[in-house]
Amino acid sequence: MTDGHAQHMLGRPTGAFVGASWVALGLGASVYFIGLYNAQMTLAEKGFYLAVFLLGLFAAISVQKVVRDRAEDIPVTGAYLGVAWGMLLVALALMAVGLWNAELLLSEKGFYGIGFAMSLFAVVAVQKNVRDLAAFRNLHPDSAPAEYTAFPANG
């Protein structure tokens, strides 16, 4: 058994970690979007910061998936690995250059930077939890809670 497969068997992530990850993502994204909504900038500038935010989230999820796939001996092309890392670096660079050149107070620049960084970290944790829970459910199908339906079972 490979180390990646052994890690799958360690168990499911705790509810506290899953909850904290989702709360961190919600807070980071909410802070960023509220700041963007209230910002005194042109619609084009707001669109730039929104696009960079979304690119960063997608790239961070892709990097997490690629790194995890490789650790678990799941084939991943070098091209996709390079694109994932490249887009994450591009998103970070675009955010840094955009904030550096923005006519904002230093506190506002920090506000966007922290919201962006927090969201990137949190989305990686959320993706890890989603993947770990799916792997746990595949290994232990009988330990997953039964789904509640409002309709009575036939019989």
Outline the structure in words.
- The structure is a single chain.
- The protein is mainly alpha-helical and 155 residues long.
- It is 75% helix and 0% strand.
- Helix 2 runs antiparallel to helix 5 and helix 3 runs antiparallel to helix 4.
- The model has no long low-confidence stretch (mean pLDDT 86).
List keywords for this structure.
mainly alpha; 155 residues
Short description:
Helices cover 75% and strands 0% of the residues. It is built from five helices and no strands. With 155 residues, it is mainly α.
Instruction: Work out the helicity level.
Output: over 70%
Number of strands: 0
**Number of DSSP helical runs:** 5
Averaged pLDDT? 86
* Gyration radius, in Å: 19 Å
H and E string: HHHHH
Strand content: under 5%
* Biggest beta sheet summary: none
Anisotropy-based shape? flat
Structural class estimated from helices and strands = mainly alpha
